Amino acid sequence: MRLRVLGCSGGIGGNLRTTSFLLDRDVLIDAGTGVSELSLSELTEIDHVFVTHSHLDHIACIPFMVDSVGLMRDRPLTVYASEETLDILKQHIFNWKIWPDFTEIPNAQHPYLRYQPMELGETVVLNGRKITAIPANHVVPAVGYQLDSGKASLVFSGDTTTCDALWEVVNKIKNLRYLVIETAFSNSEKDLAVISKHLCPSMLAVELAKFKLEAEVFITHLKPGELELTMRQVEDCVRGLRPKMLLNNQEFEF
Description:
The protein is an alpha/beta fold and 254 residues long. The protein has a single domain (2-253), classed as Ribonuclease Z/Hydroxyacylglutathione hydrolase-like (Metallo-beta-lactamase, Chain A). It is built from eight helices and 16 strands. A seven-stranded mixed β-sheet has the order 8-5-4-3-2-1-16. Strands 9-10-11-12-13-14-15 form a seven-stranded mixed β-sheet, with helices on one face. Strand 6 and strand 7 (110-111) form a beta hairpin. Helix 7 (201-208) packs parallel to helix 8. 43% of the residues are buried.
């Protein structure tokens, strides 16, 4: 499996793009503004989108992608998410008011878009690749994902705050190689992190103390303007694991 980081920022500006990862050539994990980096031909190859939650920075490009390449494809784009997240997309995005309902275009029998509900703990197998929804704790229904090639796994936390259930699952993954976890705010904005159910470096340190495995740790979703500050605080707060900042166009093979 090869995972390419299309976007990993908590905002936009300059070369910053919001959360999206391309798995091999046909799967997206979230679909934030990073998807706009793909060419039209690359977009036509994407068959599956796994959504962590419904916030705009994680789903912004789904409507544009479907609209741009739906006519060029011979099968619908499948969006996987929890029932709650899919309901939000149906009610608030693909509702004919914000954007057309592409589950009915060109017709309901042959749509450009289809929804596939996923339950927490459920695994979808795509050509031997296993993608499992794992716990997260956010202000809207949310999950993270374990991506398992068979040889090794990568875990993406999605947006989350403190979450004991996440570590109960993660600590059982024997082939874990990479952990990608959010830290949206600096320590000076801890109150905002708490109310918005994100992490700051001091909170991240408490969470990573629950992590019992050895893996490379990468920090994602940092807010623009505070990248260096937040990473310095991560280095000060987190001992032993040496987390690194996730970067655009970074690739992982596992």
